[in-house]
Amino acid sequence: MSEASGPRTLRIEGAFRLAGGRSLEGVDVAYETFGTLSPNGDNAVLVCHALSGDAHVATGPGLDGATCPGWWDSLVGPGLAIDTARYFVVCANVLGGCSGTTGPGSIDPETGNRWGLRFPLVTIEDMVDVEARLLDALGIERLLAVVGGSMGGMQALAWARRYPERTDAVIAAATTSRLGAQAIAFNEVGRSAIIADPRFAGGDYAPDAQPADGLAIARMVGHITYLSQDGMREKFGRRLRDREDHAFDFVSEFEVESYLAYQGRRFVERFDADTYLYMTKAMDYFDWQPPAGTDMPRFLVTSFTSDWLFPTAQAREIVRALLSRGAELTFAEIDSPYGHDAFLLETEQQGALIGAFLERILADRNRCAERRVS
Q1: I need a labelling partner for 334 at 20 to 30 A (CA). Which of 7, 63, 89, 249 fits?
Q2: Active site residues per annotation
Q3: Strand 60-61 versus strand 67-68 pairing type
Q4: Are 71 and 13 within one domain?
Q5: Which domain holds residue 187?
Q6: CATH code (residue 210)
Q7: How far from chain centre, in Å, is Cα 233?
Q8: Which residues, including other chains, have CB under 8 Å from residue 310's CB and lie 6 or more apart?
Q9: What pLDDT was estimated at residue 250?
Q10: How many CB atoms lie within 10 A of CB 321?
């Protein structure tokens, strides 16, 4: 039977040292689990979320106890590619996040006030170290796989570098080993929009009065990079919304304008502006090298034909780096019109690849266990 834990929080006590040299005294980690951990703990899969995601990866109880959908319901659940009837799925909100894990919106124990920009900068590697501590607390010594797309894919790659002995496999979708200048530039535009909002107040805004305009613009800019040109043309074209002719005024009249404004408003309702600054900066800093040594996970690396944010050329860079270290890997470029968002929307091809890959990893682990027993 597949079980969903609902939101939980783990407290990591003591000093937690960060890559930037500073330390946090105690870290709260918000996480959820789906499925049942096997008696010998050999069926655990860690799913890492993207920039705007959280721990609620699949359908299960929300904060109010009511069942609500997850952000990757197309792939995580009973009978799906990441089958919660077979695998024990763990997903945690990342360090620096705004969904229960310690971040800039948390209370600084020294001052009793919200951290704001006094919170130390974090890296993708810091996020992974927190996830490793969470798994320690859950009694999971070795994962069957680490899975993630976009920023989650960066975490999956970082797991292979920092803890290669703790996972059998890594699945990295629609991601990169390092951001190029264009992606960093888009992140900076978003951060600048937030900081320029008069309500930003140096990051010390009240939780119920955050710089909504700046955050909405940041989301609008970011969302454009998640779509493809062909997808936008097909979905919106130059169609007008609720009118037959141009308004000759500075109002949102094209359908694509209204769509982006809607995405911005929705994002403000569930995300924090300071967190956006920290998450995008962590992505900017990410600069990955493949693991060295013989105890290396197996890899599944996927890209999507219309993803111009993290294009296939960047995925091939990951593949070449891994092959240079003798890694065993599978690579696939999936044809999709959905742009970078394809890793969230493409179910059939991506699901078949991930499902078959996980089955092979589990079968190989079981064979190894049988040989040890015999």
Answers
A1: 89
A2: 150, 307, 340
A3: antiparallel
A4: yes
A5: 183-282
A6: 1.10.1740.110
A7: 27
A8: 150, 174, 175, 176, 183, 303, 340
A9: 83
A10: 16
